[in-house]
Amino acid sequence: MSRAPAVICDSCILFPPSLRDLFVWLGITGACRPRWTAAIHEEWTRSVLAARTNVSAESLARCRSLMDAAVPDCLVNGYEALIPSLTLPDPDDRHVLAAAIHAGVENIVTFNLRDFPEEQTRPHGVIAIPPDDFLVRLLDGFEDEVCRAVQSQRALLKNPPKTTAQHLATLEKIGLMQAASLLRAHDARL
What we know:
CATH class: Alpha Beta
Mean pLDDT: 96
Shape: globular
CATH topology: Rossmann fold
Strand content: 5-15%
Largest sheet: 4 strands, parallel
Strand order of the largest sheet: 2-1-3-4
């Protein structure tokens, strides 16, 4: 079996709770090795606080701590010196590419592909990929681990609990259409 891929999770991947939880579970089960930085944490938590008035900064700080404790070697440090040498459409995204280069990962998982054009990331050995495509690829090489991650995530949903069909529908709503479709074939394992 090949080594599970390491990826940088852009802040937009960590913003929706269901997707954030899924990537943490993918890391726990060994399906992939999700990575992020303190700056990425700052981005997604700032966005959550701006969008959801019922969420406190304290609960997000606790969430960050739990994420960092749950996924071995998730925090990327020491990438900052690369930032000034990089060019992207939005200079504020350079830290994400710098972290990917420094961590030696092949992919940045993001919904915002236009922010990471291939002609500017490929020379560094990095390609941006949407989460749905990434999960489809993971299912091809790490099916058992992905199924365990989805099952573990669903098992912790208590308020309200969700059936497998309801959980897969949630994954579809956050943009994981292909992956949810493929996961339906594994309904008994989820």
